[in-house]
Design a protein that fits this description.
This is DUF2252 domain-containing protein. Helix content is about 40%, strand content about 15%. The protein has 17 helices and 15 strands. The strands form 5 sheets. It has a 6-stranded antiparallel β-sheet, with helices on both faces. Helix 2 packs across helix 17.
Length: about 475
């Protein structure tokens, strides 16, 4: 059977989604399915600690000890921050050449819920900082390895094998299903809250749906306004929580004003018109995530002029995808644009406020800094490891479904289906890799922890909600 393969850099000159056709089943001769399970540490070609530290040059140097401390907290937090390490490791082995729009960081907690523009909660991928066209199996490997690492971190390692099998089955079965659907039906498909609950709850378990509903109601700009602001000198201001949320914008205030102004040029006219009805009233620098710590992130508060209704936007620095040095460079000249275009390709429905911008850097290189913009929260419910650990297999099945839909939207689903086949070869190999790589992640985490203990790497402890 034939497949569509994203062409290289030159093929994107006119349209970034131009495709060529190759035979998916024939790719088994390029990378045999059993070889998907191989992990050879001696062939990785890089030092994990050097790769982590090599990402620090474009980050806010004041926040690097916090990033290192978060990553060193556990093998799981290390994995969350070590997408660059795994990118290099994945690139050290031959790939299938069956190309999709990679999420790039498809670990199990990067799936979550938020409101579509129609105000319906949908379950989908939620992080696209590393998105880039690349081999489909790289997303699958990162997803399945994350299940093993999360299971170990939450004391349910005995269930890791079942969770990996369930996650792969969710992916494979929906790839098979989508291979029978018309393309337009794939693009309209989404995973609703009800479908997620069908996966993740049993007949006598009614806690998860109530928790989702309660959290989603609070995860909005109006909910954030109540929780994150206070009146200071007669004006509404975002409340500080140093060092995670501060008004320390003396070095960035002019940059932020430029970012917000230029952002409007990246959104459609009707959104720009809507946005013109709001005034920017406050902004803080924010620390988010694990791998993102040190990237410049701002939280802005704007109020609608007529009713003072609030809206929060998150403005986040975007650097090159960690995969770009191993694949073709992004066809977009702005990495914020790369992130947003990848998000729109992968997600079933995307926040209507997303956009991008860039500014000239005052640093030594003078290179521009790119940013992307999105609503802050907007119904977003991010799962917690301890919440999903007791039902990890069920949750993994739902994640496999979502990942399959993302790949079916952005690649040739028939080719992936033909490559995977109906036997257990691919599934067994992916499982073998997941456990082998989880062991490697343990060793890499220990390397970082020792470097911190020996004083070679600066680190401080700290986590929101501490």
């Amino acid at each position: 059977m034939a497949m569509n393969l994203w062409q290289g850099e030159n093929a994107f000159t006119e349209r970034p989604n131009k495709i060529i056709t190759i035979d998916g089943a024939a790719q088994r001769k390029v990378v045999g399915r059993r070889s998907l399970g191989e992990w050879r540490p001696e062939a990785r070609g890089h030092d994990a600690l050097a790769t982590i530290l090599g990402q620090n040059s474009i980050r806010d140097q004041r926040l690097l000890p916090l990033r290192h401390g978060r990553m060193a907290a556990s093998p799981w937090t290390y994995y969350r921050g070590a997408a660059a390490v795994m990118a290099a490791d994945l690139a050290s082995a031959p790939n299938t050449g069956i190309t999709v729009q990679l999420c790039g960081d498809a670990h199990v907690l990067n799936f979550g819920l938020w409101n579509t523009p129609e105000r319906n909660l949908a379950f989908d991928l939620r992080d696209f900082d590393e998105t880039l066209p690349g081999p489909f199996e790289w997303d699958v490997k990162r997803f399945l390895a994350s299940l093993v690492i999360l299971a170990r971190a939450n004391g349910v390692e005995a269930h890791a094998k079942d969770a990996v099998a369930a996650g792969y089955a969710g992916y494979r079965d929906w790839i098979a299903t989508y291979s029978t659907w018309p393309e337009i039906d794939i693009w309209y498909d989404s995973v609703s809250t009800e479908q997620l609950l069908d996966y993740a709850t049993s007949d006598d378990d009614h806690k998860l749906d109530k928790l989702i509903e309660k959290r989603a109601e609070k995860r909005s700009s109006r909910g954030a306004f109540k929780k994150l602001t206070s009146v200071v000198d007669g004006a509404q201001r975002i409340t500080e929580d140093p060092p995670y949320r501060t008004h320390a914008l003396n070095d960035h205030l002019a940059e932020l004003e430029t970012i917000v102004a230029q952002y409007q040029a990246s959104v459609p006219d009707h959104i720009s018109s809507l946005w013109s009805r709001f005034d920017l009233v406050d902004a803080v620098q924010q620390v988010v995530g694990v791998g993102s710590v040190g990237m410049r992130v701002f939280l802005t508060l704007s109020e609608e002029r007529r009713t003072s209704d609030p809206i929060f936007l998150q403005v986040k620095q975007a650097g090159p995808s960690v995969y770009e040095q191993f694949l073709s460079p992004s066809v977009y000249d702005n990495h914020g644009s790369r992130v947003i275009h990848g998000q729109r390709m992968i997600q079933s429905a995307t926040d209507m406020f997303v956009g991008w911008t860039s500014i000239s850097s005052d640093g030594d290189t003078g290179a521009p800094m790119d940013f992307y913009v999105r609503q802050f929260r907007d119904g977003k419910v991010i799962p917690k490891g301890e919440m999903i650990a007791p039902r990890l297999s069920q949750f993994a099945t739902a994640c496999g479904h979502v990942l399959a839909r993302a790949h079916a939207r952005s690649g040739d689903v028939q080719a992936i289906h033909d490559y995977l086949g109906s036997s257990s070869k691919a599934g067994d190999a992916f499982a073998e890799f997941a456990f082998a790589y989880a062991d490697q992640n343990d060793r890499d985490h220990a390397q970082l922890a020792k470097a911190i203990e020996d004083g070679e790497v600066d680190a401080v402890e700290g986590w929101p909600g501490r």
